[in-house]
Amino acid sequence: NKKGFIFDLDGVIVDTAKYHYLSWKSLANELGFDITLEQNEQLKGVSRVRSLEIILGWGNKTLTEEAFAKYMAEKNDNYLSHIAQMDAGEILPDIPKTLNYLQETQQGIALGSASKNARKILQKVNLYETFQAIVDGNDVSKAKPDPEVFLIAAQQLNTVPTDCIVFEDSVAGVTAANAAGMISIGIGSDETLGHADYVFNDFTEIQTRFIEELINR
Ligand code: G6P
Ligand code: MG
Fold it and tell me: In 3D, which of 116, 113, 115, 133 has the Cα closest to residue 173?
């Protein structure tokens, strides 16, 4: 019984959500305002362009096209300076255990991320070879909450969407998984991710037996 297990990257496999936040925060500060952790929840899973648009809205700022492009590049440079320091030690608890189990049981394993830096990050933490399919921000035309990223991942795994399970920490990502007709597993708080089929705080709360049940259903 082969299922497709599709993982979001930022905030699920590694805690890069904190680096995105730091980079956006320093950019907002430069523009004369601040962003809160609560606001940051709304940026998770959201593309780089869309994130900057939302942030500018919060600060009541408008930018010329040129300045917009400049700030986008600046944010990414800042973010990449954090990424450069990463190694396998940043893989979140029990992710390796889960991935090993899925490999042993010959499940499909894919990445479904909005990030254009996803491949780079997987290489940094030594997980690049673990994924049979990698679909990221370079491969899609419609961002989450559109289901495109997960539908392409299912296709690349040679599975149908109803045989896929998505792990997501973002509101937009859970919405996208649901729209794809997949089982959605929220990683985070019940308050934020109440629309997921299941919610766990992190992978240490996910028992092997639960994964086994997903495989056999
Ligand atoms: C993920 C993160 C977002 C980020 C997006 C684009 O979905 O959760 O916070 O904005 O990827 O990432 P990128 O690395 O391409 O800027
Ligand atoms: Mg995420």
Answer: 113
